[in-house]
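TODO from last week: model Riboflavin biosynthesis protein RibA.
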Amino acid sequence: MSEQDVLIGEQFPHKVSATYNRQSDAEQAVKSLVDNTNIPREQIKLVHPKDPQIARKLEPEVEGVRRTFVKSHLVFGGIGFIVGIIVATLLITIGPAITRSSPVFTYIAILFLFTLIPLLAAGLISFRPDQDPLINKTREAAQSAQWTLVAHCADQEQQEQATRIITPTAKTL
């Protein structure tokens, strides 16, 4: 089981997008992706100008995003809590006099910090800020009467294949 399996609940966590001025160019890119990669057609979405389904096409795995949120918070929060207990116990047994004289406050302070900071990191993973540029470019393209191909990839290999195939034909990537 990889680190990604533990934290990410999405089936297709990697995305590639390309913008086209004409529908025919975008459809040709979809055909090229299906014919030349191992990416099934169901994983490729075509966002047309003024598309009312843009949010669903950009993020079709709402349940997967929810699983990512829960998994990352449980894993990071749990690890932080356990490490916090270990650190607080060490401070109480062999630490400075102030931590030994107030074990309850030491536990409270250390557990708070060692749980909160990893939970904040889990939030960063959950909200996937790495995908913001793709989402923003796709929305801008849809408002500018352009077509956007969005390939939802299962792994980095599919992502690299998709990028290699659509880069020569895309207006922007």
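Done. Residues 62-94 form the longest helix (33 residues).
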